[in-house]
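Our preliminary data section would be incomplete without showing what the modeling component actually yields. Below, a chain of 123 amino acids is followed by its predicted structure, encoded as tokens that our downstream tools consume directly.
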Amino acid sequence: MIEPRWPQRHVRLEPSRHRPAGGGVLLRQRHRWHPNARSLRSIGFDFLEGQCSGPIVSSHSYTHNDWGSRATAEKEDGGTWHYGYNSRQEVTSAVKKDAADNALPGRSTEYAYDEIGNRLSHQ
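Predicted structure:
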């Protein structure tokens, strides 16, 4: 049986601000980390307008399984990737679903592995 791998220390990135080359709008990037692991829980980008943040440009929110592997990845549009794993925590499937939890045609993939973890197929 594989034991979960939890890190010895907690890593956290604070919000950072970026100004595009040549001027333009200031962009803020936010990271949130899983409290018990070095797993990214969410990342977001928004424009800074004056003293308040502006509209969200892009965001991703993540959930993780008990082993720390990514279980879902949600975008700001409500679409979500769902990931499946085998007993060795190798990704075996990825399915993109819309906000109503319907699988999107052509947006899924499956992987197969041999007994030592070499990927045999991808479809």
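Residues 77-123 form one domain. The first strand starts at residue 16 and ends at 18. Preliminary results of this kind motivate Aim 1 of the renewal.
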